[in-house]
Structures are given as structure tokens and as C-alpha cells.
Amino acid sequence: SATAVRVGDERIFLELYEIAKSEQTAEKWPDGRFKRHTVVTGRLGFRVTTPGYGGFKKRWRDRSRVPLENQLNSVIIGLHEAAKVEKKRRLEQEERERQQREREKKYHELRSLLFDEEKKTDLLELRLSNWRKAREIREYVAEAKSRLGDDNGEIDPNSKLGERLAWALTKADELDPLTESPPSLKEQIRELGYYC
């Protein structure tokens, strides 16, 4: 498990380890190269393992003239430098996340506006289409009366043709968004909570 220290508000991960070295042995591989093995040295090393750091010291080792315990001041300075870099990285990440949240919020607002706009456009197109149908129906009824009616363009309202033309005018009024009319059969069924 990783070891961490808190420097200010930042968690800095670090590792204390024993330095090992690779030594050549007398044994050889079949290709003639000498085999190597790892030997522990009894010397200690200390390093900052939090990723993303550069430009400052992040590794200290026991040296023959300067043991690790005599480098603690440099270690503390390194931890503070690491904390500065980590804080900058964290703040930049938080800013990117904030900007992303703002973009998503704006996107959803625009999508909602677009959805409303599309609904209004669809409703306008439906009303325009229905208005045109109503106008065509009224023109059709007027033409039917002029061609099939008596000299005054009248048709007996009790005749089959008269009933069909009266129904057509009622339908035109139902379709016409600019005319008040009683609810259609579909609207009456919807008012009861059913759909057809």
C-alpha cells in the first residue's frame, strides 16, 4: 500500500526503500553473457511517487559522504515543492471539471430550448396544414353547392349530399385553428383520459 503525507491540503505519496544493485556473477548464459543477480546494499532511498512532477528533486539516497538522515531538509523542501505542483494540478483539474459541468449545463439548456422550438415549429406546421385543409374543404363545399345545388346554390340540408356537406363544414371548423368549434370526437375521448 502507498504511504502518503499531507502537506497543506495535498496528499503526497512517497516511498522509503532499500537500494539494490545488480552484480555480475561468474556464471554465463548459453550465449556467453555473464549472468547478473541483485544484491541489497543496506543503504536507504526515499522518493516522491506522486506522478506528474518535474523540475525539482524527488529522489534522495544514502551516499557515502551524505547519509539520508543528513538530507532531511532537502526532503522536506522536496515535499513542499511536490505539494505546490500537486495543488496546481488539482486546481487545474477542478477548473476543467467546473468548465465541463458548465458546458453540460449549457448544452442541456440549449437542448431544452431546441426541443421547445421544435415543438412550437411542429405545432405551427400542423396548424398551418389544418388551416389549409379547412380552407380546401370549405372551397370544396362551395364548389359542390354551386355545381350541384339549385339556382341559388342551395342544397337541401336533409338530403344525403346536404348531410355530407354539413359534416364536411363541421370537420373544416374542427381542423381550422382560427375557428372556435366544439371538441372533436378524438378530443372528447382524450378528455375522458383515453387515447385512440
Topology:
Blueprint lengths: L2 E5 L2 E19 L5 E15 L10 E3 L10 H77 L11 H16 L9 H7 L5
Helix pairs in contact: 1-2
> Can you give the helix content as a percent range?
40-55%
Q: What sequence of helices (H) and strands (E) makes up the elements?
A: EEEEHHH
Q: Report the uncertain regions.
A: none
Shape: rod-shaped
Number of continuous helical runs: 3
Distinctive features:
4-stranded antiparallel sheet; alpha+beta; 4 strands; rod-shaped; 196 residues; 3 helices
Structure description:
It is rod-shaped and about 125 Å long. α1 (72-148) packs antiparallel against α2. A hairpin with a 5-residue loop joins β2 and β3. It contains 3 helices and 4 strands, in the order ββββααα. It has 196 residues and is of the alpha+beta class. It has helices spanning 72-148, 160-175, 185-191, and strands at residues 3-7, 10-28, 34-48, 59-61. A 4-stranded antiparallel beta sheet has the order 1-2-3-4.
Question: How would you summarize this macromolecular structure in one to three sentences?
Answer:
By secondary structure, this protein is of the alpha+beta class.
